[in-house]
Specification:
The chain has helices at residues 2-6, 11-30, 50-60, 64-73, 75-119, 126-135, 142-161, 174-182, 229-249, 252-261, 296-309, 326-330, 354-363, 382-390, 392-399, 407-413, 448-453; strands spanning 265-270, 286-293, 316-320, 339-345, 365-376, 417-424, 429-435. By secondary structure, the chain is α/β, with parallel strands linked by helices. It folds into three domains: 1-31, no CATH class; 56-198, no CATH class; 220-436, Vaccinia Virus protein VP39 (Rossmann fold, 3-Layer(aba) Sandwich), CATH 3.40.50. A hairpin with a 4-residue loop joins β6 (417-424) and β7 (429-435). α9 packs across α11. The longest helix has 45 residues, at 75-119. The N and C termini lie far apart (129 Å).
Length: 464
């Protein structure tokens, strides 16, 4: 060893070589079986170069929307979009199949119902009658709309359960619908509306109302009705200042203008309040106008506003009284003064008996006269109705107003027909034109096809 060192071989190298040789000989003597070690080689040992790494770091510092914009422009996103397109097209095809299958079954049932109606109109069930009436030129009444919607929900579930039975028709009875609907999850009382004949106007008594299922009285969130005369007597002077900002926020001036544009002939405004419709009145379109409200102070404010706005209009009257006593105030029905137009804005919610008030309005109409209403009530959206129900008590205390009433049901219970209906503010503001059932509809109130062909709409009869 000293000899090797003297020959110029460093001791460090010599020691390492000796250690390697000894470990190798020990491994060979002690090994039982050969060991194979697999080695893999990467084509790109450094997949992200320095420039790409810097670019990604710059992108991470950008706002999220810019990062998404860069991603949408990248090749990676364009390649992945093929999968998205195929999945989206598949979902669309499945949805289209279920939709067209439902339309096919519905069309087959319509043909079946029409054949039944031609052979014997009396054989139609309630659902089949509502289906034909919905397809005809007639307009479903408010309660009929509700019940037909529930029938349609039940029909979809029926079709899902009998998907392979093509010849089975959906023909439920009202009892089966009531049983099915009572099992559905609902926040309010689960009753399907009962379609009764309109109440006879001559036999109506506000103290003994007939029981009508699924009416406003079934909603526990509607506060009980009360006489609001004293409230508005005290509120009269401050009413305009307190309500104006709420109306401005809802742009109700446009709706009041529509209301006043419907007036013609001799006009009666019920629940006139402080005369907030007077600025939108067109006096040249009317012969006379009578303002009526149960609060005397309200009527006095209305009188002053009208005289200041139209000092030369002489045929104007101002009366204190309730809409529930309208017929009594007018005297004998045969000799009482009748009106071409009876108008009311946001008054049904404050009446003690809104159904009786509407029936009295109908009795004081001239033949062909119209009742024009601008009211707030239940919406077409559930979340809005939940809000109206939640704040109903506070609204009653603040404004003596039951703003969660179903106005369509009130019209239905009063036995009036709706010739025009428009809903705004998520369906919570009702714009209605109503008539008595015996009065014919005007030419501008006819359905489009009847206007085009110059024909009269034929009502659908069940043969009863």
């Amino acid at each position: 060893m000293s000899l090797l060192w003297k020959q110029g071989i460093p001791m460090g190298i010599l020691g390492r070589n000796m250690m390697k040789n000894s470990m190798k000989s020990a491994f060979i003597h002690n090994a039982v079986a050969p060991v194979f070690i697999a080695r893999t080689y990467s084509k790109a040992p450094f997949p992200i170069n320095d420039k790409e790494l810097q670019r990604q770091r710059r992108i991470e510092k950008l706002p999220k929307w810019q990062q998404w914009a860069i991603y949408f422009k990248s090749e990676k996103f364009k390649k992945s979009m093929t999968v998205y397109y195929i999945c989206g097209f598949g979902v669309m095809c499945v949805s289209f199949y279920y939709y067209m299958r439902d339309r096919w079954y519905e069309d087959k049932q319509i043909q079946h119902v029409r054949k039944k109606y031609q052979n014997d109109p009396k054989s139609l069930s309630e659902y089949e009658y509502l289906m034909l009436k919905n397809l005809s030129q007639e307009t479903l009444r408010p309660k009929e709309v509700k019940k037909y919607r529930i029938y349609q929900m039940m029909r979809k579930e029926f079709r899902r359960k009998h998907i392979m039975d093509k010849d089975l028709m959906f023909e439920p009875t009202p009892e089966e619908l009531e049983e099915w609907y009572s099992k559905q999850p609902r926040r309010t009382i689960k009753k399907a509306p009962v379609l009764d004949e309109p109440i006879d106007s001559g036999s109506y008594d506000s103290k003994s109302k007939p029981k009508v299922e699924f009416s406003n009285s079934d909603n526990p969130n509607i506060v009980p009705a009360e006489d609001t005369t004293e409230f508005y007597e005290a509120k009269a002077q401050a009413y305009d200042d307190e309500i104006k900002w709420e109306e401005r926020g809802m742009f109700l001036g446009k709706r009041r203008r529509w209301l006043m544009q419907q007036l013609k002939g001799d006009v009666l405004e019920v629940a006139c309040g402080t005369g907030r419709n007077i600025p939108y009145l067109y006096p040249e379109r009317i012969n006379s106008i009578t303002f009526m409200d149960s609060a005397k102070n309200m009527v006095e404010i209305t009188r002053k506003k009208f005289r200041d706005a139209f000092p030369n209009f002489k045929k104007a009257g101002f009366t204190v009284g309730k809409a529930e006593d309208l017929v009594k105030l007018a005297g004998d029905e045969s000799t009482a003064f009748k009106y071409d137009t009876i108008v009311e804005a946001f008054g049904l919610c404050a009446h003690e008996d809104p159904v009786l008030a509407l029936k009295n309005m109908g009795k004081l109409l001239k033949p062909g006269g119209r009742i024009v209403l601008l009211e707030h009530g239940r919406s077409t959206w559930s979340f809005v109705n939940n809000h109206l129900d939640f704040r109903s008590e506070k609204r009653m205390k603040t404004w003596a107003c039951r703003w969660n009433l179903d106005i369509g049901e009130l019209i239905d219970e009063a036995g009036l027909d709706i010739t025009y209906e428009k809903r705004v503010h998520l369906g919570s503001t009702w714009m209605l034109v109503c008539k008595r059932p015996e009065d014919p509809i005007n030419s501008d109130e006819k359905p489009f096809l009847n206007k085009l062909m110059g024909t009269e709409p034929k009502p659908l009869s069940r043969g009863k």
